[in-house]
Amino acid sequence: MNSYSLFRRSRLRLAFWYAGVMGVILSVLGFGIYRAMMQANWAAMEREIESIAGTLHDSVEPLLPASEAPIAVLRQIFPDLCLSEQPCNATPTLIQRHTIGISDRSTYYIRLFNHQGHLLAFSPNQPLALPNTLNRSSWQTFRTVNGIRYHQFTTILHSAKDHHQANEPNAHPSWGYLQIGRTLEPFDAETRRIQWILAIGFPISLLLVAVSSWWLSGLAMQPIYQSYQQQQQFTANAAHELRSPLASLLATVEAILRLPTSSQHDVPMMLQTVERQGRRLSHLIADLLFLTSLEQNSGAKPFQPCCLNDLVSDLTEEFLELASASDIHLTSQISNSEIYVLGHESQLYRLVSNLIANAIQYTPTGGHVMVSLESHDRTAYVTVQDTGIGIAPSEQTRIFDRFYRVESDRSRKTGGTGLGLAIAQAIVFHHQGQLLVKSEVGVGSLFTIYLPCIHDLIISLKAESRS
Ligand code: ADP
């Protein structure tokens, strides 16, 4: 499977899982909100029925007659109710709102039962299917044949006389029952409306989640894909770099083996070539291993305070011979005050020496290389400036890439592997610093290393140890 289809499949899988998880979260959330809304609506409706029943109960109870045949009184109290087993001729004009206080008479109905559970009176708008005997449970929900749901509440009524007779052994516990109910049509309509919103909204939001998860998984895969490509490029470059010296080494060995005995005096010279190529390979592998260990931060020893003044003066001295051999004037300008940074001394040596070696390498004879060290605002600056061949602006960002060489032939002639600046940059990053380049073709280059310095800390530590 090629890398493109591998990444596409991974992206698809990531998007699928993301959309799946989001879908489950959305469904649970949507269902939860739906249930909470329904329950809140239902509770509000039951509270309203209870409150109407309570008001009605309190206003009716003192007026209730004690007699077993209270028709006449009931007609007086509830003129808009139909009486059981009598023709129902209640008209809206007779409704005395103040008596029962139900504002919306098309929604609510009331029914009155005696203590035996026989229907005495009822609102004319009660559902037709209701039985004339009482179901004593407090709350009931039912559906009529035309599919309309009703919810009703039943409460006990006591007449004023019942309260006095409460202690008598044969007295009835109550006068009767008041039942108040309402149609659930508006409630069911609201429920259907919410269900529609969810039924349409859920697939749309799921679609949006699927699209956005595809996009997000693409974003998430991008750096991984880039790093994978870089790795592939790196492997290809490394293989290429290893192949050339290896091929030359093998060719030389083959030539030695085929050499006639008469030309044996050429052997030492050829062995030198073998040795040179072997060293080149060994350097290359060592550099690669060093880069890898820097990136993985493996086997990292703790940072130590390192004096940059010593480091720069040592290196300038070390490179003096090489510079003078190339007829290059190497100078240094080092700050008088001691500048310390926290780091690995060997790595810092390698960092600065790579820059000085490059400056000498890419400066023609008679040129100048200057190394300077100073510090400002807790930052140490090490600069390596040369009057060499310079680097074109388009190359300046690429020179830090592994194996990258400006005009690779030119660099190969100087024995460079294209890893020097990559190693320098990795060391600087490892020390939380920065490495910048300014260069002009034919004029020269300036490499600046910025490192966080601990100058003040060291001074105070020294002062403490003295006191
Ligand atoms: P190399 O080992 O080939 O020198 P580096 O990573 O050290 O590899 O440098 C990468 C490229 O940057 C080199 O090929 C060289 O062309 C260019 N370069 C580095 N330093 C300088 C410099 N001081 N002046 C001009 N070119 C430079």
- Outline the biggest β-sheet: 6 strands, antiparallel
Q: Which ligands occur here?
A: adenosine-5'-diphosphate
Query: Would you tell me the structural class of the helices and strands?
Result: alpha+beta
Q: Over all CA atoms, what is the radius of gyration?
A: 48 Å
Kindly identify the CATH topology of the largest domain.
Beta-Lactamase
The overall strand count is 13
Provide the domain count: 2
Q: What is the end-to-end distance?
A: 70 Å
What is the overall number of helices?
A: 12
The topology string of helices and strands comes to: HHEHEEEEHEHHEHEEHEEHHHEEH
Question: What is the architecture of the largest domain at the second tier of CATH?
Answer: 2-Layer Sandwich
Strand content: 15-25%
The geometry reads as rod-shaped
Mean pLDDT: 84
Textual characterization of the structure:
The protein is of the alpha+beta class and 467 residues long. It has 2 domains: 191 residues, Beta-Lactamase (2-Layer Sandwich), CATH 3.30.450; 163 residues, Histidine kinase-like ATPase, C-terminal domain (Heat Shock Protein 90), CATH 3.30.565. It has 12 helices and 13 strands. The protein has a 6-stranded antiparallel beta sheet. A 5-stranded mixed beta sheet has the order 8-10-11-13-12, with helices on one face. Strands 7-9 form a two-stranded antiparallel sheet. The longest helix has 74 residues. The radius of gyration is 48 Å and the shape is rod-shaped. The two termini are 70 Å apart. 23% of the residues are buried. About 2% of the residues have low confidence. The structure holds adenosine-5'-diphosphate (ADP). Adenosine-5'-diphosphate (ADP) binds next to helix 8 and helix 11. Adenosine-5'-diphosphate binds next to helix 8 and helix 11.
